[in-house]
Amino acid sequence: MTSIVVVSAGLSVPSSTRLLADRIAAVTAQALEEPEVVHVELRDLAHDLIDNLLTGFPSPRLGEALDAVRRADGLVAVTPVFSASYSGLFKTFFDVLEPGVLDGKPVLVAATAGTARHSLVLDHALRPLFTYLHAVVVPTGVFAATDDFGDAGLDARIARAAGELASLSAGRGVARSVPSTRRTVEEELADPTPFEQLLRTLAPS
User: Fold this and answer.
1) Would the pTM count as exceeding 0.85?
2) Which domains does the chain show, CATH number per domain?
3) How do residues 44-56 score in pLDDT, each as one tens digit?
4) How far apart are CA 114 and CA 148, in angstroms?
């Protein structure tokens, strides 16, 4: 079964960011055959994220969210725009991911703001962030200003982006069957790599 995780960083209740995330998730699910869709609402994890930054260890519920992202075949990442960029809460969540979690993972980026003046946030902030994290960002991003909700143009952008994410995510199942050479923190703690082996990886060939 294909797994899609939807990360939403809206702060208010109700939230236009969560509304956009839900619409994208629904259209993506329609394009896939009975996918597992997991919603991660960062507002509910705000204190857990700060504690993780300070201690280096996630709480149980934050750990579940991080594990869901690790196991996902595709990711929908939606943030409100603050000061012409993604929110601090949004960035913090991806700061605490283990290195390599997003390697090769399809990601649909989306953002909400009060006016269309912030629409370039998709290209000048979100795409560089996920490119740095080695994710595969789908070609179509989704930006929604307040006036865009209820507009047919937004529906068209969502449909196109969701189709791209569904196409890339559906092929991840085969790739996931190939063992990864990257070890998780839990694996290292349970069975540490010998120091001599680590030194050999640094030695010139």
Assistant:
1) no
2) 3-179 (3.40.50.360)
3) 999 999 999 999 9
4) 10
